[in-house]
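Comment on this:
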Amino acid sequence: MTEIDSVDFFTNRMVLDNPYGYLAALREESPLRRETHHDVVMVTGYEEVVAIYNDPQRFSSCISVTGPFPGFPVPITADSDVRALIAAHRDVLPMSDQLPTFDPPAHTVHRSLLSRMITPKRLKENQEFLWRLVDRQYDEALRGGECEFIGDFASPFAMLVIADLLGVPESDHAEFRDSLLHNAAGAIGSSEGETMRDTPLQYLYGKFAEYIEDRRRRPRDDVLTGVASATFPDGSTPEIIDAVRVASNLFAAGQETTVRLLSAAVMTIAEDRALQERLRGHRELIPNFIEETLRYESPIRGDFRLTTEEVEVGGMTLPAGTTVMLLNVAANRDPRKFDEPDTFDIERTNARSHIAFGRGVHSCPGAPLARTEAVAAVERLFDRTSIIEIDDSRHGPVGDRRYRYLPTFILRGVSKLHIRVGL
């Protein structure tokens, strides 16, 4: 057994906190390499990850969130018809009712509902709300010159932006905050043996079912009526649960990814005084700073695919039924794509080529909104402060920081970020 093989990526706390050395060692051997603990083929090369994302026919998303835990419900052999097995057992797979686990054509049809729910007019109105909300949330978070950035700003801000986008009445915003912000989705992909929490998603399903049922009975001139009346491309009306799933998935996934992006951006600014001053003086660099943050600290470590037939990628033959993990965090630091990938460079010309939001049919539909939220959050934070620093009393001094990362092999980000600001 090699030194790499002695490490279990999915449970090793040191690798979860800092996965980059382990992933680079994997890539140096091969852009695809089978790990020995859970029989997962780890895909660390940029070109190889993109190729698999763009091939949903031969790489099913049915296990995209959970991968080998618990794995596929029946054995898959060399003679198995994997597509038939997926069709027969999809309903018993974890999270099988959620859009990220769908394959075309079902995924294509259900995702099309998003474009009918979220129109250009709605996006423009939402951006106007977003810029008002960022000030309101900073009024609350920065009142004492210090805050826990994730709980006091990033989580409520991201949640309320998505709530507004989907038309959740402002009178219900406080209920959403109380019900969701203290019941995080961080146990998905847990490395600490926790049972996956489904309460937040159940809450969302219940609330959006109420909204959609009500608007179908009594249409109004509001966003939720648009969500409730969205149709499939052939003009047919979805079942209520279909509309609920799409709305709830956008709500949950968009919020979690954005929170990790915001916290990574602010941590980077607070840790690097020279970078902070440069961005303050050259605001035009902020959009590319956000792209480089997404590349350097991808909010989603990656997700899984199951091969439906024998396929060759990156010089490796993958039998049908192989579980692969597409590692965005590794692909975004592939030196074949990004020069000096372990250096944070706000002027990197190809920073936006990152795959933090995935690629192909399952690329994140909320990516443009997340970018807008991040730019707004950084712009307004600079407007309202003279200096942003890490709180040494909470995270330790420079050179000996103590950050705790989410204990999950799916998400990448700190669980708390305490900062001090000069107002």
